User: Fold this.
Amino acid sequence: MPSGKQTKYIIVSGGVISGIGKGIIASSTGLLLKTLGLTVTSIKIDPYLNIDAGTLSPLDHGEVFVLDDGGEVDLDLGNYERYLNVTLTRDNNITTGKIYREVIDKERRGDYLGKTVQVVPHITNAIQDWVERVGGVATSSDHSAGREPDVCIVELGGTVGDIESAPFTEAMRQFQFRVGHDNFCLIHVSLIPVVGAVGEQKTKPTQASVRDLRGLGLSPDILACRSAMPLEEGIRDKLAMFCQVTPQQIFSVHDCESLYHVPILLHQQGLVDVLTDRLKLAQLRIAPEIRADGDTLWQQWREFARRRARDLDETAIAIVGKYTYLADSYISVVKALEHAALNVNRKIRICWVEASDLEPATMHKDPLKYHEAWQHLCAANGILVPGGFGERGVEGKVLAAKWAREHSVPYLGICLGLQVAVIDFARHVCAMPQAFSAEFREDCEDPVVIFMPEIDRSTMGGTMRLGSRPTRFQDTPFARASKIRALYAGADEVHERHRHRYEVNPARVAEFEAKGLHFVGRDAETGERMEILELEEHPYFVAVQYHPEYLTRPLNPSPPFLGLLLAASNQLDAYLAGDDISHTVETKLTI
Assistant:
């Protein structure tokens, strides 16, 4: 690294089962280190062969998270950005596909000088080089101060013992000697199941997992034990005896009121002290003002978590989507709603509505499901239609937008949610009954949504309009006075992340605006791409082509989501008038 500074690495591995919560524990650990004034970055290792997550189904792997540079990555990187308030790049997500492609490209160029290319050392060296290179890169949040990361947290995806994870585990075994004992710490996340009618906690699965890990050359410094209840008396001592750690290095990560309480849970058990001792963090020089910022962050986080546990007034938002059977498909949307709700002193209640259940065909096929879906939609205080691909459920989303428009229900459309709002408006206000999207019917009579000309039709992965792009608010009377611009603090231009292939047909925009559907924001590059719409004479009917949920933060919610929650809780007018909506709260959060 240019400065000669040695980054310290915390590896987070998992045992017994997948989906055990490594990402939340990694994010929580990073947050606690940030409260000390340390600069933290993170890396997620995914052992699948895909180059990135872009072509994975949300129902198979959860949400595809998009970064500023257009990287399509695992949803855990979204957790890292939200918890650590950093901006990561595609290099912060390592996959088997990326590593093998890099090594094979080098072999084709002759970089290995005729040697036999093998998993060890070539693949394992490539992994270590990648981790060390990215671990020393300042995140964008720290560029102004020029601070390289003090700590890099590396989440090792998969479960210890998986065949596909073997090269990464071996690379980390070697890496501990490359960076040195004082710069390498391993947190192993394992399960403490409860078996039998008496509800006894069992340690054998964790013992076996640690034994497997040690057999691969890695010994955990910290055990994070996932369980439904706090660890029973004697469990720590038993684990310490068989896993070669002290009881102080064993942490109970039991179910708590919300994921926002996990950092508090770990802090109460002394994780900061253990990490400070293990990694010699006290030797790092941190300026007093930066330490003070860390103290403020911790105070704000504790207040945010406290609100999550309070009995606040409830606001119901209906999410109308096509992947509603797996909430992780919309994890960033859910987090954005939570952040906005708690920042305006409300508790969010999400009503999941499968879009296809709203369609007339379901009324004949399954009347009960049809009426339940409409009951949820009609009872909600606000409606959100998120992004998605494919024709299934599109007509249901159009009906949801129509309901919100006609009944003055607060509405937020994201990506496809903007497009279905335009389709509804074209059909029912602009007398275009055949209006549709060319994505679903190329030969439709009135294509109000069209394919972007520069997009590659033949290749799926990484060919959409991706990453952070500027959107400029229009210089019109309506745009200047629009609610969405006010929520963006009157900014002339905003930068948000995109992921789409289709856009509103610019040839039809004048007709829509003449009828009251205003495109108040357009792309800053050409001015021809519709980015933000707002309907006149409506409490809150806003839709955006980009994905604002990717930039939400617990202490700094996304403006479009903030507007939806304010409108749905009847606070928007007061907020826009400058009233203090947090007058009943002991500690105000930064908005």
The CA atoms of residues 81 and 87 lie 6 Å apart.
